[in-house]
Amino acid sequence: MIRLFLAVILFFGREAFCFTPQTRGVLSLQPSSYETYSRDDGKLQMFFADESSTTESKEKGDTANVSGDAIGIGTPAVELVVADSEGFLNAVGSFLVDSFWLSSDHHQLGNDTDITNEARMRLVIEQCADLQEKYGERMGKRLSKTSVVGALDKETKELIGVVTLKETILINSDVLDPEKAELIAQNAVASLGPKQRREYKNAPLHTIATELLSSNTKAVCVLSNLAVSRKARRRGVGSVLCEEIEALAQDWGYDAVHLLVESENSSARQLYENKLGYKKLCMNKAVPALRVDPETGSFQEIQADTLVLFKRL
Question: Signal: is it a keyword of this entry (predicted)?
Answer without folding.
Answer: yes
